[in-house]
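Exam revision sheet. Question 4 asks you to relate a sequence to its structure. Input first:
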Amino acid sequence: MNRRNKPPIKHAGRLKDRFGAVCIAIACIPLLFIGCAILTIIAGGVTHLSEAVSSAEVLFSLQMSVATSTISTALCLLIALPTAYAFTRTNMPCKRAAETLMQLTMSLPYIVLGFALLLMFSSPAGKALKDIGFAVVFQPVGIVFAQLIVNLPFSIRMMLTAFKDVNPRMEFIAKTLGASSFQTFRTVLLPLCRNTIISTFVLTWARGIGEFGATLMLVGVTRMRTETLPGSVYLSISTGNTDTAMATAMIMLVVSAATLVISNVLTKPIGAARVSNRKRPRKDD
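Answer key, C-alpha cells:
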C-alpha cells in the first residue's frame, strides 16, 4: 500500500492516555488493599501502644527478635558472599544444580523448612549435639537456625544477582596488575556491590524479625523463653488479647518502617545529595 494512501492513525495520543488511566486505576487497587491493612494495624494498635511498650513480655519478645535476627543476618551475609562468589567466579562443579537447590528452598513453605530442621535436630546426630551442650529444639538458638534456613537462600540469591551484574573486565584488569583473587574480591567486587550488600543486610534482618512459620515448628512459642514479636502476636490472639496483639503488630510496623528508611538512606548514591543540593546554573550563565 502506498504511503500516501495509508489511512492516518487517529487519536493515538488519546488511546495512550486511556491505557495510562487504566494502569493507574489498576495500581490503585493494591495501594488501597495494602493501605487498608496498614491502617487497620495503626487504628487498632496505636491506642494500646504505650501499654505494650511497658509490658515486660513484649519487651522480651522485641529483644529476642532483634538479637536473633541480627545474629542470623550476620551469618547469612558471611555465608552468602563467598557462596555467590563461588557460583559466579569459580569453576565450582554442579553450579546449576546448586542454584536450583537454592530456588527450591525459596519456594518451600517456611513451616516445611522448620519441620525439616525439627527432624534434623531430633535425629541421633542432633541428640548427640544436645548431649555435648548444643541444644537447638525448643531453645532460643533454634530461632537463629529457623531464620537462617529461611533467609539464607534469599541472601544468596540477591548476592548472586549483584555479582552477575558486575562486569568482570575490571576484575580481570586488577588481576593483570598483580592482585590476588581475594584482593580483587575485597577491593573491586565488594565496593561495586555496596548498595546491594546493604539492601541484602537490611531486608534479611527485616525478614528475620517477621519470621514465624519455621520458628513455630522448631522451637514453638514459650512465653519469656522462645517468644519473638510474631510469636507474641500469636500468643495474644490465642488468649483473646486482641489489643496487645494489635499493639505488638504496631511495634513490628514501626520497626519495618524504620528499616525501610535506613535502607533508603544507606543505599542512596554518595553524590546524590551533593548534586541535588548544588545550586542549578541559570540560563543566563
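Marking note for examiners. The mean pLDDT is 86.
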